[in-house]
Design brief:
single chain, 217 residues, alpha/beta, five-stranded mixed beta sheet, 5 strands, 43% helix
Length: 217
């Protein structure tokens, strides 16, 4: 509530006249009101580098690991609502800086020669303002209890990805969520209002488990 709100491309349909992902994805990219949340399979579908890697490496997207959460499979609804209050102030502040960064990034083409400018914007507007959210997570009553009660060293990592509009559309194609003609139509419509190389932001979640508890992500 008032912090992260979910919406879905299928809400923006045009009857049965066309694939509902066409107006949905076009609408969300053009309006930039919502952060696209992708599956962690994005790391298998595309090449990526972490934000602190060498400038001479270019890839499909830049990964920005932000926050660690404990696994929340045992949390109850009332605890979620209480936890939301713990995080709300820090999250609202971070959201403001994220929106500012998004607007600046959208003016930059995601191409090799602009990588330093993109990274500097991300560091200044996003990374520098993320620590207070992690502090709120670490100090949250129920999240701390869950973390302390866990037998295994497990966590959930919330990540951002920085990429081009074209790559964002290609994700849905490579993940086999849309047909090639749908991807082509989405790109054709977006080309009317923007360059497909402009930079955009998405989010995704990965999980991690210590080796002694059975390994990986």
């Amino acid at each position: 509530d008032k912090t992260w709100q979910l919406s879905f491309p299928l809400e923006h349909t045009d009857g049965n006249k066309e694939d509902s992902f066409i107006p949905g994805i076009v609408h969300f990219i053009e309006k930039r009101q919502y952060l696209f949340s992708l599956n962690s399979i994005v790391e298998q579908l595309f090449t990526f580098i972490d934000l602190d890697k060498s400038d001479d490496i270019f890839c499909d997207f830049i990964k920005i690991p932000l926050w660690d959460f404990p696994l929340l499979d045992t949390i109850k609804f009332k605890q979620i609502k209480y936890t939301q209050q713990d995080l709300n102030t820090a999250m609202l502040s971070f959201s403001t800086h994220l929106n500012e960064a998004w607007e600046e990034l959208f003016k930059i083409h995601f191409i090799p020669k602009n990588q330093n400018e993109i990274k500097n914007t991300v560091m200044t507007k996003i990374v520098s303002n993320a620590a207070k959210v992690q502090e709120a997570i670490d100090n949250s009553l129920y999240l701390s209890q869950i973390r302390n009660q866990m037998n295994s060293n497990c966590s959930v990592k919330f990540n951002l990805g920085i990429t081009s509009v074209a790559t964002l559309v290609d994700y849905y194609l490579r993940a086999e969520m849309i047909e090639p003609y749908v991807a082509s139509e989405i790109k054709d419509r977006l080309k009317r209002t923007m360059n497909l190389d402009v930079t955009c932001v998405f989010s995704y979640v990965t999980s991690w488990k210590s080796e002694e508890e059975g390994g990986a992500a």
